[in-house]
Design a protein that fits this description.
- With about 375 residues, the chain is α/β, with parallel strands linked by helices.
- The protein has 12 helices and 7 strands.
- The strands form 2 sheets. Strands 2, 3, 4, 6 and 7 form a 5-stranded mixed β-sheet that branches. Strands 1-5 form a two-stranded parallel sheet.
- α4 runs antiparallel to α7 and α11 packs across α12.
Length: about 375
């Protein structure tokens, strides 16, 4: 990169080179601030996906840096783009490291685990520097080969690095509850009557780099109703049936992934809903989904029609009542087994969209963050 700026050349201008370097670093740090501020809760709710996707970004950024000597006239553009990617990756690494270290600190020895992680990092950094120095010494007599060597070894080391990170993240078993993890736990408990361990949930959850978990039939979403679909028969009837003591309600909805329409169950939380209400609501939503799949009921059965004494609407409310009774009957046993299995059940981590709540004001329903 110094060579790309002209350092070492007889006609290079130190002030111009320094200015380019400062601009590169400054823009990279600014992007890091923007990234960390905008992502927020995703560091907790989608930790593995954020960590691995930013690792890919880091490897690509190094590749862009290696291209700067070939295109010195575009140094500032290429170096800035690479530094932005590396800054974002560093921010994600720092934000997710504590949670990953905590998952390995079985004996509450978080400091020891963090120290060993730093030792591993330093050892491999030094090994990389030593390897680079040896390769440069071996290729010292052939300048053209020395210049092309980084591009030759880059794909190999980048592939090995990402493979190691991917398999490392698969070994991370987080005990905190998110919507996705809690949904996996409840589905397993409904089907088999037992609480899966963090390792079992981790294998089912995966890293989900391409966000494929939402593709299942009747996916469950925590958040607000889509205004475009809130006028359906079930939505109108559900909103009319709300009582002042209700801390959540469950409704049907639909969303679009590209051109594909997706059926979903929407869990809307009230502003005063606690962690126990989130668990009960998601437990009820999972039972509703199980019933809809068993009876082979689709969204088209409820999306249109008159809400007055419609048999389809009666069936929907019967399913809701059955699921609510089932949830309240088994929730104490489920919660006790959840804690006994080692899960941190005192809080459910939600993304920014999942944190949207509704409140009752003058008998009107409003949604607010």
């Amino acid at each position: 990169m110094f060579r790309a700026m002209g350092v070492g050349s007889a006609r290079s201008l130190p002030s111009a080179a320094a200015l380019n370097w400062v601009l590169k670093d400054g823009l990279g740090r600014l992007s890091r601030c923007i990234y960390t501020a905008s992502l927020g809760s995703a560091f907790d709710t989608n930790l593995k996906r954020v960590r691995f996707s930013t690792s890919i970004l880091f490897s690509l950024s190094i590749g862009v840096e290696l291209l700067t000597p070939a295109f010195p006239q575009y140094f500032l553009l290429l170096a800035t783009a690479a530094n932005i990617g590396k800054s974002i990756s560093l921010a994600a690494y720092l934000a997710t490291s504590s949670a990953i270290h905590r998952s390995f600190a079985i004996g509450d020895n978080l400091g020891e685990v963090s120290a060993k992680s730093q030792i591993q990092t330093v050892c491999f950094d030094n090994f990389g520097l030593l390897l680079a120095a040896l390769l440069n010494l071996l290729c010292k007599s052939n300048q053209s080969f020395q210049a092309g060597l980084p591009l030759a070894v880059y794909p190999i080391f980048a592939t090995v690095d990402l493979f190691a990170i991917y398999n490392g993240l698969k070994s991370v078993h987080l005990q905190t509850l998110t919507k996705n993890r809690l949904e996996i736990i409840i589905d397993t408990w409904i089907c088999s009557g037992c609480i899966p361990s963090p390792a079992e949930v981790s294998s089912k959850e995966g890293i989900d780099v391409f966000r494929q978990r939402g593709g299942k039939l009747w996916s469950i979403r925590i958040g607000c109703l889509d205004p475009k679909n809130s006028s359906s028969m079930v939505s109108v009837a559900t909103l009319k049936s709300l009582r002042n003591e209700d801390l959540y309600f469950i409704c049907m909805g639909e969303s679009y992934e590209g051109l594909r329409r997706k059926q979903e169950i929407v869990l809307c939380l009230r502003e005063t809903a606690a962690t126990s209400d989130i668990i009960v609501g998601l437990f009820q939503a999972c039972f509703i989904r199980k019933t809809l799949l068993e009876r082979k009921i689709s969204w088209s059965c409820f999306s249109k029609g008159n809400i007055n004494e419609d048999p389809r609407l009666v069936e929907w409310f019967n399913i809701v009542e059955e699921s609510q009774a089932h949830a309240h009957k088994h929730i104490e046993q489920f919660s006790a087994e959840l804690r006994a299995a080692g899960w941190a059940a005192n809080n459910v981590l939600l993304s920014s969209k999942e944190q949207i709540r509704y409140t009752m004001l003058n008998d009107d329903l409003e949604q607010r963050r």
